[in-house]
Amino acid sequence: MENETNTEVRKEKRKELRKWKKPLKLIREDFLPRLAKYNEQNETFGDRNSYSKTAQVTVATLIDFIFVKQCA
Known about the structure:
Layout: H1 7-45, H2 55-71
């Protein structure tokens, strides 16, 4: 586009690029972070269907329960 001398051609090229700017920004800032979060959650779930059955949550809950029981 910088090498183009005809202003009308440059204007058309700029217009074509502008058309894609908003959808690409939406993908970069919204969809890709959500996809990363989704993949992370799928790794945590494994073959389970909720967080309540994951080992990390169970261990944390058990530790909290023991702590509360000892303090009472």
